[in-house]
Every structure is written in C-alpha cells, then in structure tokens.
Amino acid sequence: MPEQDPLIRQANFDEVNLGLPEKLALLEAERCLQCKDPKCMAGCPVLVDIPRFLELLTQGDVAAAAQCMLSDNALPAVTGRVCPQETQCEIVCIRARKGLPVAVGYLERFVGDWARGHADQQPFQVGPPSGKKVAIVGSGPGGLTAAGELVRRGHDVTVFEALHKPGGVLVYGIPEFRLPKKIVQTEVARLERAGVKIVCNTVIGRTYTLPDLRARFDAVFIANGAGLPVFMNVPGENLKGVYSANEYLTRVNLMTAYQFPRSDTPILKGRRVATVGGGNVAMDSARTAKRLGAATSLIVYRRTRKEMPARAEEVHHAEEEDIQFDFLVAPVAVLGNEKKWVTGLQCLRMRLGEPDASGRPRPVPIPGSEFVIPCDVVVVAVGTRANPLLTATCPDLKLSKYGYIVVDENGMTNLPGVFAGGDIVRGAATVILAMGDGKRAARAMDEYLRKPAPIINTP
Fold this sequence. Notes:
Layout lengths: L5 H4 L12 H8 L9 H4 L7 H9 L3 H11 L3 H7 L21 H14 L15 E5 L3 H12 L3 E5 L8 H4 L8 H13 L3 E3 L10 H7 L2 E4 L5 E2 L12 E3 H9 L18 E5 L3 H12 L4 E5 L11 H9 L3 E3 L2 E8 L5 E14 L5 E5 L5 E4 L2 E4 L3 E2 L32 E3 L2 H4 L4 H20 L9
Parallel strand pairs: 1-2, 1-4, 2-3, 4-16, 6-14, 7-8, 7-14, 8-9
Antiparallel strand pairs: 5-15, 10-11, 11-12, 11-13
C-alpha cells in the first residue's frame, strides 16, 4: 500500500495509507484462487462474498464488484481501513500457507472508495414499507449497519446519537490519519438518502429512556458502545495533564482541538507524552500526540511487543513515526509538582509469568525496580466499560455482572422487541464485530417485526 513518508506524516493529520491504484488492485485480485470452500468468507463477521467481489474485480467490472460488496457490507470504505483483516479473512486465505494472503482489506478499501465516488451507479435497494418503526441507539458501526439492513427491508428507521455528529467511535475514537471523517460522512449520507433518519444530541437515558423508546417504536436495537473510560487506580491520576484516551481522542477527532484556537476546544500539547496501554487506542493516542508536536511520545506497556493487542500495521506505523516503546513496564503512580501538574510517571519493571485468563503471560512486578519516566502529559488507554446511563433507566433489562447487556444468539435481550449488539454486549472489541452484531440482529428484528400479532382469547 502506498503511504505518506513517515517524516512528513508525523506532522500532519492527513491519511497515512494512500490506497491502491486501479492497475495494482486488479493484479492483486487475480491472486485469488477462487477456492471451492472459501475459508475467507467464514472468517468475515459480516459474511462478505469475498471470492465473488474479487472475481468481478479481475474481470475489470468494478461497478459490479462494488454492488456485490455493498449488498453484504454497509461500510466498505470504513472496514477497508480499520478492519483487522489480517486476523480474520486473510489469516485463513490459502495463499497465506506459502506466502502472503490476498490483500482483501486493501481491495475492500479500493472498491469502497470507488463506490463513494460513483454513488449514482450504486442505488440503495429499499423494500416496500412494512409499516413498522425501529429505534436504534447509537450511530456507530453496529447501529449504522443495523440501520442499513433494516431500511433495506422496508422498515422505518430512526437512529438516536448522543453526540453532535453521527458515526460513534468512527468519528470520535479513530484518528483522521487512519479514517478521514469525510468517508464516514459519505457512508452516513448514503443511508440517509435511503430513508434512515438520524437524530443527534439525543442521550438515551436522559433525553429519552429505554421505556420511552419501547412505547414509541415496534422494536429497539441498542448499540451505544462501551465508552466509559477505565483508569489505572494509582495515586496521582487526578493531576492536571492526565487524560483518558476517550477524552483525548474525542477532543482531537470530533472536536478538532488540534486546530485550537481556530477550534473552540483546547488540548494540552505536551513535550513529553506517555501513553499507557498496548491496543489500537494506545497507538492512536501516541501517534496523535506526536502530530500535536510532542518531542517524545512514548508507549508504556506492561508486557512485550509480542503480546500487544494492537494491529501489526499500526505498531509498524508508530515505529516509523518515531513513537518510543517501553515494554515490561507498569505505572504505579503519576507524579506532579506543587501546582498539581504532571511531571512524571513512576513505574515498576515487570517480568512475564504464567498465562492469565486472557491466555497471555501475566506481568509480575520485579521488586526494587522502581524508576520514573519524565513527562508532562499522561494518556490512559487501558480499556473501557459499559456506561450505565441507558441501562439504569430500565431495571428489567438483564445485565452481566460487568454491566453489559445480555442477549441470545440472535441479539435479543430478555425484553421482547429489544435487541443489542457491539461493545455494550461484548465489551470493547472491533468495528467489524460490532457490524456483524448489527447485521445479525437486523435479520432477527425483521423476523420479529413480521410475525403476526398473537391472538388473545377473551372470555
């Protein structure tokens, strides 16, 4: 994939990957062996007909490939950029046994971008009106996917979004240099043209409650994510200069704090920024800090590079952009000065012990290994959990012990007509898994909505 030069891109928010030229995309598609038993489809959470769209690409029929893709995937230009294909469809590609797999992700992006530029050639097929009204809570990947599937089946769909722009984690959590906002806007506009109504600045749990929605709509799909930040619970986390990754990325991504003072939202532009964590959110935060002008942007992670959950491509890009890594290190306190501003991160060295519940080696502190990392900003990217704002308004809704919504194999909760999916069910996961949940739940909701009303015998 052609990409921006690291020395140039670390000072701007333009997209890193530049996309495949058409000739290269068609050549790459020809590498598909068209297996009789395509493992790649089983590896895709939204069940994209990968062999079919690749076959159409090799024939040079990009329009047909785009129509094939869009019939399975509501957001191909998004998933082509942020989906971890290397651990899903590509890892089971037969080509991968003796070399590189077919670059499904890059080709998905190519087709998705072509479709965005030729929207007039990709009509959204909408079924006859069903007369049923559906409410969707959250306009992230799960909610948008469900909305597209349901409006395609003829239902009247309204999406409620808490923030001032639709897109959920796609706009507040993923940086511009990985997923430009205009791409999300284009995909949302396509759904709106198909009839999906999106209502922003509406917090379900405050503006309306879940019982309110149940009274007004025939079915509800909850896809509000798990956006409540998790902190380290160490001394000094309340000092000035400590951000949760949620707040840090939202300020920059959705509220354009990197343009301050032209933008209304300020952000601290530290000279030495320490980001705690090893996932994609940590990579995004550290790379954002570098673009905001940090002389040193450091990832602090308590295991080794091998155990990092971040995508290999994101780690590679971070290294190219001079992001520093301190492995086998765990913070034990945030240090500050007399004015309560951050001055450093007190840490312990770790060693790896026996595997924990995640299957990864458990970090074990090394006694007497304390040291201090000097820094003026700390970004905590160690995870998120379920926000109880919505669920607190409906005590009858069954939750797990961690506050996540419990659903059956079709995504239905214990309340008839109320479905849920994505991070509010799974915990923090990927965009494509949320989309898979949205697609599966939409099918089940359609069946639920089309069932004849039960006959009630009266004496």
